[in-house]
Each structure stands twice: as C-alpha cells, then as structure tokens.
Amino acid sequence: MMRIIHYLNQFFGGIGGEDQAEYPLTVTPGPLGPGRLLADKISDAATIVATIVCGDNTAQYSPEHIKAEIAGLIEQYAADALVAGPAFSSGRYGLACAEAAEAAHFVGIRAVVGMHPENPGVNLCPANVLIVQSGESAMDMMASVGRVSDVVNRLARNEDLSPDELKTCIKRDIRFNAFSAENGAQRAVDMLLAKIRGNTYASEQISPHFPRVEPAPPIEVPLSKIALVSTGGLVPKGNPDRLESSDATKWVSYSIAGRASLNPEDFECIHGGIDVTHINNYPNRLIPLDICSEFRAKGLIGALDDEYYVTVGNLTPVARCEQFAIEMTAKLREKAVTGVILTSS
Amino acid sequence: MYQANAPQAHLGAAHKLELCNYTVRKLRLGDETNWSDGVLTVNADELKKHLIAEAGIRRVGIAVARPGESTRIVNILDAIEPRAKPGDGQIFPGFLGAMDGTVGRGQTHALNGCAVMVCGSVPGEVASQVVSEAMVDMSGPGARYSPFSKTLNLILWCDFYDDQGPVKRVSVARYAGLVAARFIGAATFGNPPDEIRTYEIPERSSTLKNETPHVVYICPGMLLSDLHQTFLSGSALTSTPTVVHPTQLMDGILVSGNYDIGATRNPTYFYQRNPIVEALFAYQYKGLLAFAGIIVTKCLIEGFFGKQRSAYLAAQTAKLLDANGAIISIEECGHAYADLMLTCQACEEMGIKTVLLMAESAGPTGAKPGPIAFAESADAVISVGNMDELISLPPVDVILGGQWSCGRWMIDNMAMETMETPLANIFAANCQLGPGRLTGETR
Fold first, then answer.
1. Cβ separation B128–A276 shorter than 8 A
2. pLDDT, tens digit, for every residue of B92-124?
3. Is B443 inside any structural domain?
C-alpha cells in the first residue's frame, strides 16, 4: 500500500474560514474532510496516513519554515507521496499547495495537487508535480477528488496514466536544458536562412502568455481612500522583514502614520535591479508620500491609508505577483481603500 | 604633436584581414616567451614585470589551466584571445593604441585555442551594482557548460592596491589582460602560421545583382554602470548604433568591461572570435549569403524612449545596408530583452527578417514563466539554455583566480565540498553570442 500524506487548508480541514487563516500547521493521523472521500476511492492501492492542516496566511508568512515542517512530517510518517488540495481557484490555498509540493520534491517523493488551471499556484509547483485539474469552487468537489484519485491509483500501482487521465493533468511548459549538435550561432544563421527562403523552422523559444490588465474606471475627486503600493523595494532601514532584492517571495506593509514625507534616515531601497542612489537620497521619489500629503492638505485626496505596501518586482514571476495582488487587494478592501497609487522601480 | 606616419599605404583600398592562426596545443611556463610547433611558452616573470610596469597592478600571479585538470578558476573578470599585429598594425584600439586604418585590415596573428583569463577579487558596490561571480571547471560535470574548459588558459591572478576601489580594480585588470594578450600574441612574430584565413565582405553591387541575401549582425553590448560597460575602440557604447566591419571585431574593436552575471556576459574573447561572425563568413564563402556588416549598439537602455531610439536607428541602419536578414545577439538578461525585442520588432517592420539569440531564466526547475518581454514578431528565437538550472560541482584539487570568498562559497571549502550552483555562475555558460551547444526545450 502506498502511504499518502494529505495537505489541506484551515477551511477544508474543518477549522474555520478567513477568521482562522492564521491557524498554525498541525497534523492529524488518517484522512480528514475531502481526504475521507479520496481515501474511499483509493482504498485498494493506497492509504492516507496523515493529514496536515495549515491556515492560508500562516503558509504565506513563512513559506521556508512551513516547507521544512512539511518535509519533516513526510519523513516522520514515512509517506511515499503527497496529495494537496484540491485548491480549486483559491489563490492562497493554491500557493500553499505548491509549497507542500515543493517540500515533497525536496524530500524526493511524488506529489499530486488538485487545482483550477488559473490558480496562481499552478506555475509555482515544481516541474514533476502532477497538477490535476479541478473546478473553480468546492461545488466541483466530487468530480475533482475523483480525478485526483484516478491519478493516485495509477501512481500507487506504478502504472502510466491513461490518455484521458493525462488530459486531466494541467500541462505546463517546463523548460529543460539540452545539448544541441551545433552551437547557438550556427543554429541562428541556419534559422535565418530558412526564414529568408520561406522554409520551415522551429523557434527554440516561444512567447509566454502575458495577461492583459483592464484599467479600472476612474474614481472621483476628492480621492478617498488612497493607498501607496510599490514594487520598488522601499523598506525601513535595516530591512526588518528581509524582503528579497530579487525574486521576492512576499509583500510587506509599513506604517506611515504621522508622516508627511519619507525621510532617508528611516527608509532605504533594497531593489536589486536598479541604481538605488536617487531613491535612497529621497525615498519619496519611489513612494510619493510627500506629494500625497500636500494633496491631502489641499483636499484633493480625502484620506490616505496609514500604511504603504511593498514588494520587489525584480525577476519575481508573474504568477507570484498575481498572488501578491490578490492578498494585497483583500487587505486594502478590509481597510476600505478605494484607489491605489502603484509605483515601480 | 602627433606625427602621422602614413602606415596604411601598403594596405591599399581593400578592407581585408588575413587572420594568421597559430594553434596552441600545449601551454607552459618557461624561460622565454615563444610559440613553436603548437607549443606556447610564456616567461611568467617577464610578463609579470611588464604588467606591473604597464598596467598599475600591485602584483599578479600567473598560472596555467588545461582541459581535463581538476582545476576550478574563480573570480574571472574576462577572457581574451592572445593576438598581435605585426608592423604598425593596431590591436585593441583605444586601449593599446589609436584607432586607425589598420584596425580590421592587413594581418593579425592569433593564438588559436588559448585564452588569457583575467581574475581578481573585486569587493564593493558601485551605484548599487557589484562584480558577480564567474567560474570555470576544467573537468567534471561543470566543464561541459563553459567554452573556456576547452581552451588552454593562462590565468592572470590580479592583486590590487588597497586604495584601489572596484572601478579602478576592474579597469586595471582589463588593461592588464589586453597588454598580456598582445605581449603573448607577439610571440608568434617571425614564425609561419598553421593557417591563414582571409576575411572580407564582397562589393555590395555584385551581391545585390545576383540576389544573394544580405545579412547584418546587430550586436548590443551592456552598459549600465562603471562595472557594466562595453567599449568600442576604447569608448563606452552609446545607444546610437555604429556600423563596424566584421574584421574590426577580430582586431579587438569591442572590449568587454561587463562584470555582471557570469553566464550571460559577453567575454572579449567572443567578440574577437565571434561565433556569429564565423558562421556568417562560413556561409558567405559558400555563396549562401552576403555579410553586410555589424551594427553595434548598447542594451539595458534607460527608459522606453531610449530603447525605441536604439531599436529603430539600428533597424534603419540595417535597411540602409540593404539587409534582408539580421542576427541579433544580446548581453545580460532582464530588460535587455526589451531592447532585443524592440530591435526585432523594428527590423521586422522594415521587412528585415530576424533571428534572436536569448538565454532563459526559467527557474531552477524550469517551471518559471518566460522572459519579461517578447514581441509577437519574434518568431525565430534561439535558446542558449536556462541559466537558473542547478548543477552540482564536485570538489577540485586546485583553485585558481582568487583567495577570498567567491559569491557565497568559501574558497577553502571548494576543495573539500560539493557545491550546488546555478549555471548563472559559470563563465559564458549561456553566452548569447552563441559559442555553446546548450539549448532549452519544453518537455
């Protein structure tokens, strides 16, 4: 029997909703929630030995720590495979499932994750993870778990997936290095001659999909309530949360309560892809608190959020940025923010 | 007052270079500096004295690294092919002499199969930028990724004065490398070469008549800070494109001053012995195309207007050279790809068909989504591989090029521990001038 460890968020683990998003990582022997459904469908070949439950925020606050804990539990329960989700289209949950899959990859066991194709977690799963397509919401639970169980049964029996089962797995463009017979320059000139002559050729790289963002409709003056958001990496001196200078794994927010301007004694820019000299001399060049304070005094801005929100865009994957946006927007909505000034480096 | 000595009269009007290749099959240190029958001997003491006197360097260690040895070269700044021109010919113009009509013409002696590798520890920041790691393993799993594991390397291990800051250090090391390359290249004078290759581009009127496709090579070099520069005859590149003759590259008209990401920086060596230039000449001799010239510009240009400016000026220049096609290389990554894509788009708009060379940054597992910029018209792109791929390098017997930590690894540990590194730290592993066979594929 294949031994499976199952990862769920606080909601599907039966702990609670958004109010329990900070629930710590816990482990329970045997299946739980959707895991019971899964256990029935795989009972001939595999058994769920334990279920990990973790709050969605907890999983985002310290991903490295969570991954290490999950890796430890995989070993403790001698699991042969990890199943996570299904996470449907829930962004934070999908991201947490990707973390769990990374832990499995690190330990060297297979991982099967259930997700909607547009879940931002899809692109963050390691290359060899099987991502089984799920519906958009828990309405699709029965069918989604059914598809996951088909894949798990194959893995447990060491069989190849059927063509139909393969179709249920989300195909991603995973890139691998390989050695070609000719060097790059020779291939380039050969490709150019083919292109000029109208012969066929195969480009070695194709354009990734760039999602378009529709601009929101304008908001009315006086602008209220406005928040300052940036991908430029401005942090309090000393970078207390250790925001990464490239390939950021998180976003952070810092208080600007009582400030009319960001002074160079208290703030610094840790962005790794630009010359930060001018920002460090006058941080308002990145996050325009000075001018916003002025506008507030003139009544053009009704209210300004008491925090600014920041990450680093330098080499950070689009999928992760989408995830940051989902999380930031949730917090901004909570604080009744109606408009943001978004600055990049 | 400058005295012109009318040196080029004997070259006539033709723009033709005879590259005299002296193949190096064996490299050793000895009592004199000479090349004979494939054996290059370098008098290290003489070279050291020369470099200290000429280049403002404090001390320099000289060593040899050969393919197959259990040697790791670290803190690499640049690699240069030893070359010299007999008589009054100028090599590395702007650095070692004035730009004149001999650059790209007459004869050039080249020590084929050999590289001067300039190494040195350069700590510190300039405008938030640092010198990044670049290393080469001469054997083992890392060796297949760097073209410089296949060359016989003369290592110049530079030591600097304490009051020399990062910018001074790299400029001193750069100059030392060029001086050494010419010094060693001159060891061939008086010997017959293994082969002479003649490079010239045909009269355009004749190739236009018989409808041979005209191909330009657009070569952007990096310029971002004092640690990330490219020099055209001694002056930093600008975003105003310049047309140069391919043979001028062979005489060192382009010199690298870029010390960013090891895998994607363009070493001077591959400007001199440029793989794209070689491939274009080879096809020209077969009558398949006519080489119409090289357009040099810069990449990592500030601002969208600046990027558009370079892109459209380069495309317009190509059009005026009657180009039907263009190979476009690039240096570095990130928003350099915006420069690359805009240049591609501008060329295609003007009816010039393009092929681009581009590295990938697809994350350690290959799952990270593609580059930040990609034009719809970029339908022919060569991949020189994913620079984020991790490789495991075993311990080595000898470490050359630095005594301080290199990146996050301590030098002392390298002799004992396996190190896991992204290809980004391997010198020229993903060089977008196309010297390597590495590519990327979707599975």
1. yes
2. 999 999 999 999 999 999 999 999 999 998 988
3. no
Q: Is A36 on the interface with B (CB under 8 A)?
A: no
Scan for tokens 């070259």, then name that residue.
B11
Element counts in chain B: helices (H) and strands (E): 9, 26
**Mutation target vs B (from A125, A189, A280; most B CBs, 10 A cutoff):** A189
A182–B437 C-beta distance less than 8 A: yes
CB contact under 8 A, A174 and B355: no
What the block records as the tokens of A277 is 């000299």
What CA–CA distance (Å, rounded) separates B81 from B267? Answer: 10
For residue A65, give every residue at least 6 positions away whose Cβ sits within 8 Å of its Cβ, in sequence order, or none.
none
φ, ψ at A190 (rounded to 5°): -60, -45
Q: CATH 3.40.50.2300 residue ranges in chain A?
A: 2-168
pLDDT value of residue B9: 56
Place B91 in a pLDDT band, splitting at 50, 70 and 90: very high
- What is the extent of the structural domain holding B269? 9-425
Q: What is the 3-state secondary structure (H, E, C) of A112-126?
A: EEEECCCCHHHHHCC
Asked whether residue B237 is assigned to any structural domain, the reply reads yes
Q: Does A201 touch chain B (CB under 8 A)?
A: yes
The three-state DSSP-derived secondary structure of B21-46 is EEECCEEEECCCCEEECCEEEECHHH
CB contact under 8 A, A186 and B275: yes
Q: Which of B341, B344, B384 to mutate to test the interface with A (most CBs of A within 10 A)?
A: B384
Mutate to test the interface with B, among A102, A169, A177, A197 (most CBs of B within 10 A): A177
* Two tokens, residue A254: 């810092």
pLDDT in tens, B205-247: 888 888 899 999 999 999 988 999 999 999 999 999 999 999 9
Q: Give me the pLDDT at residue B6, please.
A: 42
At the top level of CATH, the class of A2-168 is alpha beta
Residue B435 falls within a domain, yes or no?
no
> Which of B129, B184, B155, B142 lies closest to B75, judged by CA?
B155
CA torsion sign, B173 to B178 to B179 to B180? positive
What's the rounded mean pLDDT across residues B130-154?
96
User: Would you state the pLDDT for residue B413?
Assistant: 73
H helices of B112-253, where? 166-185, 204-209, 246-250
Cβ–Cβ gap B380/A195 under 8 Å: yes
The predicted structure's pLDDT at residue A123: 82
Cα separation of A149 and A14, whole Å?
21
Q: How many domains does chain B have?
A: 1
Would you say residue B4 lies in a domain?
A: no
Residues of chain B with Cβ-Cβ distance to A127 below 8 Å are 365-367
Residues of chain A with pLDDT under 70: none
* pTM across the whole model: 0.84
Bridging pattern class, strands B438-442 and A175-179 = antiparallel
What pLDDT score was predicted for residue A83? 97
